[in-house]
């Protein structure tokens, strides 16, 4: 089969690719002509973070720095192998010794002769040859060193420096964790740059090699390792670690100390001093801006809290007034009902015929249930149906008239006018409604379905039921008495009846942190304020026919991490939310924690309603605070 890609395993050098010889001279190397599926990409560090340099404008610092970097195409008697090389002054280029001439020492590739060498410059858009230039290269090095793995080759047949320039070389040794760029042609593709998570390791230099975490692949051999501040070459990439933790490059300081051809830029020390001074100045400005921002935000937050407190007080006052009006109306209605029942009772008692009187009393019981008059009518029926007592021989003693006295007292009790009825307490207002145990159980079922969990409904309105009522009152800005009234029952029924019959729809889960008041009183923080809650991320989901799909997530922690990459979330038809994910709960620096939620929410849920709950701590200074909103 033509076009088989081979990967050399000769450590420590970066693996080389081998394409079919027919691809030599082409700008585009088709992946159909390779066996990429079998390649071992030994130099990838974690996620592959190389990106095409064409993602940036032609005048960007990345594109301008990459102009002198090209793909070095090596034609051998066994095929075509691509490496990377970069131009230096004198129309020369630098690459790895294991590319030229060392490819002949690679037993895996088995080449015995280098037939031709070319450098392809300007190949920045994958699959597009327009704008590229090819220059021939003398395959016999002007200078080479196997131990330092570098070769200097001469470009022939044109002045490549005139069009593409040259990179400056630096003898400076980067420090630990210094930012770097690696520009090259991995896999023979268009030019790529590795800059995300691209930096020196700690230690930066060990055993004569610069250690870095920049992603590279076969084809990156000969790539320049560029100091991101100096914009100068500080090392020559040459090897990838099979452990996948770090890659290796030869420090340019060692190459410059050995080479008779390559020269360092004379501006290195001056530029680095200027950069350090500029860094210090920018850091001071950044700190000053951060202080000013914190001051402005603190003032704005104080004003927001003041306005919110005023608005909350106004809403609470309005809610109390509404509740008081409703309860007063309920009390007047109760008095009016009792008055009508008493009138009907007096009329029934005035009927002379006992049969007709019995029927009239039964009608009172039927028309006016759960009233004092109905109880009196039932007592009168009992007395009416009882047989008369037999006469006694002795003088009768006065019989106890307790029942008659109770009945007479009931009839003689004046009925207060609705206009003069006293204001009832919350307890009295609920008592006036005279709920049965079954009615209480129905109310408990409704509150439980709406997510105000109180346990198993049993018709006994105890502390858990009162707590559920208070939770409903709090969410609806009603005075938190814990007692029922006619108006409150209407509100509960409206919310239940207004909710969709199923939980199908879209939801947003806000993942938040609440500052622990006790902790921050012990350890003051200028950003702390009582009750402070911050959103650190959110997840959007859609629920349909019992299936939960994640629509997207937003990470507000402003730090690169693995947050949300292991996200698992579901909302069952009965309202149980399960969410598990790694979350970074600090702003600006990594602090991951696995969040594992399993919370029973609501079975009936109106659109626009949000349910808030807390589930443990992020750490001793922050509580886990979750807010779930139904959006449609």
UniProtKB/TrEMBL annotation:
The keyword Coiled coil applies. InterPro entries: Peptidase_S1_PA, Peptidase_S1_PA_chymotrypsin, Peptidoglycan-bd-like, PGBD-like_sf, PGBDSf. It comes from the Bacteria. Residues 437-491 form the Peptidoglycan binding-like domain. Residues 409-428 are annotated as: Disordered. Signal peptide: none annotated. This is PKD repeat protein.
């Amino acid at each position: 089969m033509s076009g088989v890609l081979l990967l050399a395993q000769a450590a420590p050098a970066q693996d080389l690719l081998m394409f079919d010889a027919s691809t030599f001279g082409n700008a585009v190397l088709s992946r159909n002509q390779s066996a990429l599926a079998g390649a071992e990409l030994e130099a990838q560090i974690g996620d592959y973070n190389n990106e095409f340099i064409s993602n940036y404008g032609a005048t960007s610092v990345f594109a301008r720095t990459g102009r002198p970097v090209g793909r070095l195409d090596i034609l051998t008697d066994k095929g075509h192998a691509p490496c990377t090389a970069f131009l230096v002054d004198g129309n020369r280029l630098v690459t790895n010794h294991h590319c030229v001439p060392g490819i002949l020492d690679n037993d895996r590739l088995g080449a015995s002769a280098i037939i031709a060498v070319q450098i392809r410059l300007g190949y920045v858009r994958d699959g597009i040859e327009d704008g590229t230039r090819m220059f021939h290269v003398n395959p016999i090095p002007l200078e080479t060193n196997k131990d330092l793995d570098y070769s200097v080759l001469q470009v022939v047949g044109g002045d490549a420096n005139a069009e593409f320039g040259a990179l400056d070389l630096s003898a400076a040794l980067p420090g630990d964790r210094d930012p770097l760029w690696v520009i090259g042609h991995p896999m023979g593709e268009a030019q790529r740059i590795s800059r995300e998570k691209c930096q020196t390791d700690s230690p930066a230099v060990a055993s004569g090699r610069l250690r870095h975490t920049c992603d590279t692949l076969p084809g990156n051999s000969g790539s320049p390792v560029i100091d991101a501040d100096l914009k100068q070459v500080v090392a020559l990439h040459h090897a990838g670690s099979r452990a996948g933790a770090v890659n290796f490059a030869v420090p340019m300081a060692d190459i410059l100390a050995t080479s008779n051809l390559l020269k360092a830029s004379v501006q290195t020390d001056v530029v680095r001093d200027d950069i350090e001074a500029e860094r210090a100045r920018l850091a001071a400005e950044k700190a000053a801006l951060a202080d000013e921002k914190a001051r402005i935000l603190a003032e704005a937050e104080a004003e927001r809290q003041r306005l919110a407190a005023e608005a909350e007080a106004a809403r609470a006052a309005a809610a109390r007034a509404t509740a008081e009006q409703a309860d007063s109306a309920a009390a007047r209605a109760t008095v009016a009902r009792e008055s009508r029942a008493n009138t009907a009772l007096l009329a029934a008692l005035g009927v002379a015929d006992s049969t007709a009187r019995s029927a009239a009393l039964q009608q009172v019981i039927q028309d006016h249930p759960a009233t004092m008059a109905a109880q009196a009518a039932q007592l009168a029926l009992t007395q009416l149906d009882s047989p008369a007592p037999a006469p006694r021989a002795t003088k009768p003693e006065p019989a106890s008239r307790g029942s008659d006295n109770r009945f007479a007292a009931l009839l003689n009790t004046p009925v207060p006018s609705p206009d003069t009825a006293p204001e009832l307490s919350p307890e009295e207002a609920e008592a006036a409604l005279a709920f049965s145990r079954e009615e209480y159980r129905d109310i408990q079922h409704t509150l439980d379905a709406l997510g105000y969990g109180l346990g198993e409904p049993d018709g006994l309105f105890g502390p858990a039921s009162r707590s559920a009522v208070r939770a409903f009152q709090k969410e609806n800005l009603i005075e938190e008495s814990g007692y029922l009234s006619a108006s409150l029952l209407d509100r509960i029924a409206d919310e239940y009846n207004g909710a969709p019959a199923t939980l199908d729809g879209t939801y947003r889960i806000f993942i938040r942190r609440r500052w622990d008041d006790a902790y921050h009183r012990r350890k003051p923080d200028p950003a702390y304020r009582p009750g402070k809650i911050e959103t650190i991320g959110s997840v959007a989901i859609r629920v349909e026919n019992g299936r939960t799909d994640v629509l997207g997530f937003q990470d507000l922690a402003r730090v690169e991490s693995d947050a949300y990459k292991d996200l698992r979330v579901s909302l069952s038809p009965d309202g149980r939310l399960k969410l598990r994910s790694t979350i970074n709960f600090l702003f600006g620096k990594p602090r991951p924690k696995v969040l594992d939620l399993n919370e029973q929410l609501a079975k009936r849920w109106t659109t626009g309603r949000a349910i808030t709950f807390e589930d443990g701590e992020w750490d001793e200074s922050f509580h886990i605070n979750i807010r779930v909103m139904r959006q449609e």
